[in-house]
Specification:
By secondary structure, this protein is α/β, with parallel strands linked by helices. The strands form two sheets. The protein has an eight-stranded parallel beta sheet with strand order 3-4-5-6-7-8-9-10, covered by helices on one side. A two-stranded antiparallel sheet has the order 1-2.
């Protein structure tokens, strides 16, 4: 795959604009979990019309994503490709080599967006999760602001066209703005009708940072009930089974998953649902064609439970999401 100066010139789907001027498709395919199925899912998604693929070094899916893109026959410049820097490579000297490794796995010379996956730093080295003999994470003193400054330098290399963060709190983002020289183009964070975070969302708009919603269907993924740090709240009624979402879905003759996705897209955010099943991949993409009216949006607003399902603070040895809705006390 080769670098091109253009991007998404043929794409007719709904897009948002980043503070870099780039267009980013409003809906993308997430590739977390099921690594052996991701080549096929990326291929299927691109053939169905997706042009936004999200991956990460620690997912173990970057090479599968590369194979899926090649199989599809879609040119590299027509795919918005995101990957992420993992916590064991936060030292400034490790940032560019980590991106280089991802580029090799992705078989491309650039990504459209490179995100710092979490603000916490783990021990430098090859172990993605360097737990010590006591079972606790071995952390590293590098501050995320220094990692960010190293990421800023990547913009001059042509290896990424934009940089951003993921899983940050407002306090942490404010430190990025204070100590850095580049405003993050994107913050990828958990957001769905059970975790609406209106004030935090408004803050992003004020600072021209685009939100990409991960887990846009909340606790639909069984992962949140099975993982070692799972919270009891993950066992609440699945988002897609909530009566309000079901009512709005029935009104539009759509699925509750599609309504949850449409809610995010219509609010000016990107959504990256994951699926390896063809009919679901196709159905998810149709969400961008749904228009919710004011009554629908007001109804969905009542669903907010401040329910945060993704919080590996206990495993990571770092208190995440401080000050945000749904954060652990």
């Amino acid at each position: 795959m080769s670098t091109a100066t253009g991007g998404l010139s043929l794409y007719k789907g709904k897009t948002h604009t980043l503070n870099t001027g780039q267009r980013i498709p409003a809906i993308g395919l997430g590739t977390f979990q099921d690594p052996d199925e991701q080549e096929a899912s990326v291929y299927t998604a691109l053939k169905c019309g997706y042009r936004h693929i999200d991956t990460a070094h620690n997912y173990g899916t970057e090479n599968k994503v590369a194979n899926g893109i090649k199989r599809s026959g879609i040119s590299r410049q027509e795919v918005f490709l995101t990957t992420k820097l993992w916590c064991n490579a936060h030292h400034p000297d490790d940032v560019e080599p980590a991106l280089d490794e991802s580029l090799r796995d992705l078989d491309t010379d650039y990504v459209d967006l490179y995100l710092m996956h979490y603000p916490c730093s783990f021990k430098r080295g090859p172990d993605l999760l360097p737990f010590g003999p006591d079972g606790k994470m071995i952390t590293e003193p590098t501050h995320f602001a220094d990692t960010w400054k190293a990421m800023e330098k990547l913009l001059g290399t042509g290896k990424t066209r934009a940089i951003g963060v993921s899983n940050f709190s407002k306090l942490e983002l404010e430190q990025i703005l204070r100590h850095g020289t580049v405003v993050p183009a994107v913050h990828q964070t958990e957001l769905h009708p059970y975790l609406q975070q209106k004030d935090f969302v408004d803050w992003h708009a004020e600072n021209d940072i685009r939100i990409i919603q991960f887990s846009p269907c909340g606790n639909l993924n069984q992962f949140y009930r099975d993982v070692g740090w799972a919270k009891d709240i993950a066992k609440m009624t699945r988002l897609i089974d909530h009566p309000t979402l079901l009512k709005v879905a029935q009104k539009h003759d759509r699925s509750p998953v599609q309504i949850a996705l449409a809610w995010g897209i219509q609010s000016g955010r990107c959504v990256i649902p994951k699926s390896t099943i063809e009919w679901q991949i196709r159905e998810n993409l149709e969400a961008e064609k749904i228009t919710l009216d004011e009554e629908d949006m007001e109804a969905i607003a009542t669903m907010d439970q401040k329910a945060r399902f993704n919080d590996p603070s206990s495993d990571f040895g770092y208190k995440l999401y401080v000050g945000l809705d749904g954060a652990a006390p």
